[in-house]
Write a structure and sequence with these properties.
Layout: H1 4-20, E1 25-41, E2 44-62, E3 65-71, H2 76-92, H3 125-140, E4 145-164, E5 169-185, E6 192-200, H4 209-222, E7 232-238, H5 240-243, H6 245-254, H7 256-261, E8 281-283, E9 306-310, E10 313-314, H8 321-327, E11 335-336, E12 344-345, E13 350-352, H9 359-363, E14 368-376, E15 386-397, E16 400-413, H10 414-420, E17 422-423, E18 433-434, E19 438-446
Parallel strand pairs: 7-14, 13-18
Antiparallel strand pairs: 1-2, 1-4, 2-3, 4-5, 5-6, 7-19, 8-9, 8-13, 9-10, 11-12, 14-15, 15-16, 16-19, 17-19
Length: about 450
């Protein structure tokens, strides 16, 4: 793989070539990645995969017209042709007066924060195979497990570089490691499956494979012999594995693209209460070893920790430069870039602050409710906020988890859900978006 400085040089050279060919402005994204994955099933090696590749993407502007092209061929001839094709495409493209690079004065300057995104390790395939075998063996050793869908372990590294004609050139590297297991309990039509996984930036932070396998098995066993429940309105407790989905709807609703297109259920919510005052939602892109940490965004703007929701109130939209120009505002450092197309928006290490009560205390007064551990489908209308998704989990009776339940639908409106949300105190930082256990009262459950 290239070093970070070599990746930066590759991106900067293509920016210079685009400007020499007649572009008024340009930016280039370079991405190189390598990964290896070992899968086992029933104690036998099932698959060994290794991939390595690099791609470079050029976006250039001629006036208010732009074009994006990409290539995995880095020969001089191929890159010269890439620039020529992009210039020709831009001259024929429709004008977009909002499109363009990030303002020069807002670009990241100085030393980047140390986020510890790469541990520099090279993990041998034999080590990954041993992790996968240990995870599956631990899962299969639990009484009641009857079959396995397998276990896997992976390791990878990515080099990223961004260069713009405004003088910004920066790169970064990140390592990634993962381990997962998925097993089956029961027989015939009564079979159930569940899984567990963990992903980290540093290999030493990865959960023990045996723990991952045991959790997968215990979750699977608990789902056996699900029942049905009568339809009605009741409190719902959302496990952190599924509750984080609510933050994704929030981010979609306050992204610049949704606001400029007027396609968000939160269109008129800027500066207003969106959640109850007990809810604060933060972003920490500088968290060391965070799975989504980054020092700069996809346009070269610096990132920073911030409160997106503070005591229930929405502090601002998430804006790339094009959306910011259209709204007459300032870009917020939330641009995300791939090698093709314009930027989108996204967050880095988003989380909902923990509450003050345990998950057990959160459900202690519920006479009849549902503890949801899995969501199915994507029945969410981002224009109206209407929410309806399939679910499974456990019935709550007299404040205690009872028998498993399946084939139900949970429905409501995201505006009401946000206002009713109450967090427990069990927040853990393991993914790019995290929430503690959440309680929402008054949702409709469609059962039998």
């Amino acid at each position: 793989m290239l070093t970070i400085s070599q990746a930066e040089e590759q991106a900067a050279r293509l920016v210079a070539a685009a400007c020499q060919a007649g572009a008024d402005a340009a930016d280039v994204v370079f991405v190189q990645g390598q990964s290896q994955d070992i899968s086992v099933r029933l104690g036998q090696l099932e698959d060994v995969g290794r991939s390595e590749g690099a791609e470079i993407g050029l976006r250039l502007f001629i006036g208010h017209r732009s074009a994006s092209v990409s290539s995995s061929d880095f020969s001089k001839e191929a890159l010269d042709a890439l620039v020529e094709r992009a210039v020709a495409m831009a001259r024929e493209a429709p004008e977009d007066r909002w499109a363009g690079l990030a303002p020069k004065e807002l670009l990241m300057q100085g030393t980047a924060p140390e986020i510890e995104s790469d541990d520099g390790k090279e993990i041998a395939p034999a080590v990954l195979r041993e992790l996968a075998l240990k995870a599956e063996d631990a899962a299969r050793s639990v009484d009641g497990i009857t079959n396995s869908e397998g276990a896997s372990a992976s390791a990878g590294r990515t080099i990223f570089a961004l260069a713009t004609s405004e003088g910004f050139t920066r790169g970064s590297s990140s390592s990634s490691y993962g381990c997962s297991a998925c097993v089956i309990a029961g027989q015939g039509v009564n079979m159930q499956r569940d899984y567990d996984f963990h992903a980290t930036r540093y290999f030493e932070d990865l959960d023990a494979a045996e723990l991952i396998g045991t959790r997968a098995a215990e979750r699977t066993i608990a789902r056996l012999n699900p029942t049905r429940i009568d339809s009605g309105q009741m409190p719902i407790i959302f496990d952190p594995r599924v509750g984080s989905g609510f933050l994704s709807y929030l981010i979609q609703g306050i992204s610049g693209g949704a606001i400029t297109r007027k396609t968000s259920f939160l269109l008129d919510s800027l500066g207003k209460p969106v959640f109850n005052e007990g809810i604060t939602i933060k972003e920490d892109p500088w968290r060391k070893r965070g799975i989504a940490s980054r020092a700069f965004d996809g346009e070269g703007l610096p990132t920073k920790p911030n409160n997106i929701i503070e005591k229930g109130r929405l502090n601002g939209w998430l804006l790339d430069s094009a959306a910011a120009r259209q709204l007459g505002m300032t870009p917020t450092g939330h641009a995300r870039r791939g090698v093709g197309g314009p930027p989108s928006t996204g967050t880095a290490n988003l989380y909902l602050e923990a509450g003050k009560v345990t998950p057990e205390e959160l459900m202690s007064d519920i006479k009849l409710g549902i503890y949801v551990t899995e969501m199915i489908g994507s029945g969410v209308n981002m224009i109206t906020g209407d929410y309806s998704r399939g679910a499974s989990g456990f019935i709550i009776r007299d404040g205690q988890l009872a028998e498993p339940v399946a084939e139900i639908t949970v429905a409501g409106n995201l505006k009401d859900i946000f206002m009713q949300m109450v967090p427990a105190n069990d927040l853990r930082f393991r993914r790019g978006t995290e929430v503690p256990t959440l309680r929402v009262d008054g949702l409709m459950v469609a059962g039998q």
